[in-house]
Amino acid sequence: MERPSLEINLPDTHEEGKLYVVDSLNNLNKLNVCPDGSEHVLDEEENTGGTGENTAVSNSRNQCLFFVTFILTLIVSLTLVSFVIFLIIQTRNKMDQISSRLISEKKNIEELKKMNNMILKHLNQSGIKE
User: Fold this and answer.
1) Is 14 exposed, middle or buried (0-12, 13-18, 19+ CB in 10 A)?
2) Per the CB 3.0–4.6 Å rule, which of 13, 25, 38, 47 could disulfide with 34?
């Protein structure tokens, strides 16, 4: 009576062995053919049935991430440009102040030269010689 049970279990074991060998070959093929990162993509495609749902979600997620990154880049760029414009305006104001001071100092120096010349003329006319 043992013999018929062995005959029934033997084909099941043989089929399980075939499935194990096929799964092992598939896993080995995945390791040899696919890079490390794409192995997970294949597993996820097998789980979803290869309908492309994963790629659609991934594409929309990538588009959203790109959009957010683009907006943040624009904000940072606008902030930097505004700061540069502010610095240019401040520098121009300081330069205007410095140039007005230089002009007034130049006028003062010219007045001092005139006064010095007048004093020298007065001294020369009064007869005081060095």
Assistant:
1) exposed
2) 38
